[in-house]
Amino acid sequence: MAVAAVLGMAVVPASALAASPSAVVAPDVTVGDVPVGGLTRAQATAVVRERIAEPLARRLVVAVGAKRFSVLPRDAGVSVKVGLLVGRALRAPAGARIAVVPTQMRSAAPKLLGRVRRGAYVAPRNSRVLYGVRRLRASRPRPGRKLAKPAHLEDRIASALRSWTAPRLLRAYTQPVKPRVDERRLRAITGPIVTVSRAGRRARLFNHLRLIRTYRVAVGQPGYPTPTGLFRVLSKVVNPAWSVPNSSWAGSLAGQTIPGGAPGNPLVARWIGITGAVGFHGTNNPWSIGGAASHGCIRMYPRDVIRLYRWVRIGTPVYIR
User: Fold this and answer.
1) Radius of gyration over alpha carbons of the chain, in Å?
2) Which helix (H) or strand (E) holds 48?
3) Which of 18, 102, 244, 268 has the fewest CB atoms within 10 Å, i.e. the most exposed one?
């Protein structure tokens, strides 16, 4: 009985020692390739925190040229339970490898990738028409850029967020985006355009940005100037009727409607409207061509307005300067 008592007393302290905080990690045990063998709980905790948890918590930056896009791992849901890892290491046999699998929000990498893609994107600039009254030109197109290999970058971001050894700066690159319309394409797709020089009393018809024909015209009087700017053809009428404005200059005709082709109708042959009240039309006063004689409209010889009418359509640009 005395021997048994002594043996019992010897067993209890041994079990108590194994469960005490002073227990050490078995030899050659690693936590995520970080050696912790022979360390106490406190020592192993400090090492795992310094070598794994702290590097894992550093900000991840994606660089595209001079621009920077970043995310904090904690905002991406990245975390690692140091106490749990150390506890596993303390229970592990000699030579064991404790895997570290940080958590991460599923949307973290796609969200950061989306910011990078938007920030890196520059829209291409198509060639466009540069207006003048004597000539039309095509502007030079400008290529844009977009993020290169976005799927590959998303994988790199996801891997870097879960890694405590990967660099915290990822470099990404862009690739050019060609404009859809260059100068040659613009010429091919650009139809008729009409320009009017008020000072020169000339209208010009262009097609594919090349001059087709020049017409002598009359423009508005100083008190009723022809408007300037970029307009579009809104209406086309053969032998238009004339709705006389309620204005003092119209005299006894004010408010009346003169049928098309009638002797008193100044809108001869064709009407090509660019606003509600202003447009191109033939005139029965050919002597006015070359002067400032109308109430804002562009007067033309009847034969010229008939030819112009065949060329233009609803939406055709008209540039007046």
Assistant:
1) 42
2) helix 41-48
3) 18
pLDDT in tens, 47-98: 999 999 999 999 999 999 999 999 999 999 999 999 999 999 999 999 999 9
The residue extents of the domains of the chain are: 24-104, 116-182, 191-320
In whole angstroms, give the CA distance from residue 170 to residue 112: 12
Q: What pLDDT band is residue 10 in, cutting at 50, 70 and 90?
A: very low
Asked whether the beta carbons of 194 and 316 are under 8 A apart, the reply is: yes
How many other C-beta atoms are found inside a 10 Å radius of the C-beta of residue 67? 11
Single pTM value for the model? 0.73
Closest CA to 266 of 292, 297, 235, 291: 297
CB atoms within 10 A of CB 271: 22
Q: Are 5 and 18 in contact (CB under 8 A)?
A: no
What DSSP element (H or E) covers 97? strand 97-98
On whether the CB atoms of residues 32 and 100 are closer than 8 A, the answer is yes
Strands (E), 148-209: 169-172, 174-177, 193-197, 202-207
- Active-site annotation, residues: 281, 297
Alpha-carbon distance of 232 to 118, in angstroms, equals: 35
Q: Is 26 helix (H, G, I), strand (E, B) or coil?
A: coil
Q: CA 320, CA 228: separation in Å to the nearest integer?
A: 5
The model's pLDDT over 216-271, given as tens digits with 9 standing for 90+, comes to 999 999 999 999 999 999 999 999 988 776 666 656 566 677 788 888 888 999 99
191-320 domain in CATH 2.40.440.10? Answer: yes
Phi, psi for 152 (deg, rounded to 5) = -65, -40
